[in-house]
Write a structure and sequence with these properties.
Blueprint lengths: L16 E3 L10 E6 L9 H15 L8 E4 L3 H13 L3 E6 L4 H9 L3 E5 L8 H18 L2 E2 L9 H14 L6 E5 L4 H13 L4 E7 L34 E5 L1 H15 L5 H17 L4 E6 L10
Parallel strand pairs: 2-10, 3-4, 3-6, 4-5, 7-8, 7-10, 8-9
Antiparallel strand pairs: 1-2
Helix pairs in contact: 1-2, 1-5, 2-3, 5-6, 7-8
């Protein structure tokens, strides 16, 4: 019998690891998917949002009578909305019509106040990211709110160290490669760092949109893969954090979302689609005995309107 949890925040983490049955490389190697959709809001961002808030509480940046502000494509905002609702902090979110309507509605239901920054034809671009950041900065300056500032906040990295430890235990120490799409870069960096502490030979692979391949040295562009590809090299990215960088188009990612649903019964978002595509590529590179771990970043229920 599972223990009774004190509140919903204690249900974050300790998610399942699942072997894909039908979508796999021809060489017979294993692809394992960390089911982060099992977190309370259906997203891995619950981990990092909790870490950012609790670290700020511990060091005094966020006091009992304080409030919180953040810019977000949606998943981080939903996670912060949940945590602030439980802890009683007013939350002001800067987001955009470029992101799934379900995420915006979820934030509002949890009590967040939203400021919507208009996008260019519903696409994620560098200008949109920077406009959202500036709007959040202004709100924080005016209100004195604690600004989580996810693109610069290193507190979240520790949350992904924990996820890596879960993966290591769940695989009995058999991880040859880890694949993750890059948003803030914290999940790739934190998980990669912790896995490499166990085994320096684990191959870490970053995923970015082919329409905006800035990590690969390409030009910024517009894409529709929610939550990743900010359009510029994000501050938490470090040279050497990944052994290689792979590109996936929005069209490819969406096609894999459909395959995952119809062949594996897994309804995920487009960042997960990109992860699985690159995990398949890496599995072919590493050979038939390899075990590749990647992440189901969130549930596709967040994207039904898209």
């Amino acid at each position: 019998m599972k223990e009774l949890q004190r509140n919903i925040l204690h249900c974050i983490g300790h998610t399942s690891l699942l072997a894909l049955r039908n979508i796999g490389p021809e060489n017979g190697s294993r692809i394992l998917l960390k089911l982060e959709n099992e977190n309370p809001t259906g997203s891995m961002k619950d981990r990092m949002a909790l870490a950012m808030i609790e670290t700020a509480e511990a060091d005094g940046r966020l006091t009992a009578d304080g409030s919180v502000v953040e810019y977000t494509g949606g998943s981080t905002g939903v996670s912060l909305s949940l945590i602030c609702a439980v802890k009683g902090y007013p939350l002001h979110i800067v987001t955009s019509d470029a992101f799934a309507r379900e995420k915006l509605e979820h934030m509002k239901i949890l009590g967040a106040r939203l400021q919507i920054v208009r996008s260019e034809s519903g696409h994620m671009t560098e200008k949109l990211t920077r406009d959202m950041i500036e709007a959040a900065r202004i709100i924080a300056a005016k209100t004195g709110s604690f600004w989580t500032d996810q693109l610069n906040n290193k507190d979240q990295i520790a949350a992904y160290h924990k996820m890596a430890e879960e993966i290591w235990i769940q695989t009995d120490g058999r991880v040859d490669g880890f694949v993750q799409s890059v948003g803030t870069a914290a999940s790739l960096r934190g998980t990669g760092e912790a896995l490499r502490r166990h085994n320096e030979q684990v191959r870490i692979v970053a995923v970015e949109p082919s329409e905006s391949p800035v990590l690969s040295g390409g030009q910024t562009g517009a894409h529709k893969i929610d939550g990743v590809g900010a359009g510029f090299v994000v501050p938490l990215w470090q040279e050497g954090v990944a052994d290689q960088i792979e590109q996936v188009s929005t069209e490819e990612a969406m096609a894999m979302v459909i395959r995952l649903a119809r062949e594996e019964g897994l309804f995920a978002g487009t960042s997960t689609g990109g992860n699985v595509i690159v995990a398949l590529r890496l599995a072919e590179q590493l050979g038939p005995d390899a075990t590749i771990v990647t992440v189901m970043c969130d549930t596709g229920m967040k994207y039904l309107s898209k």
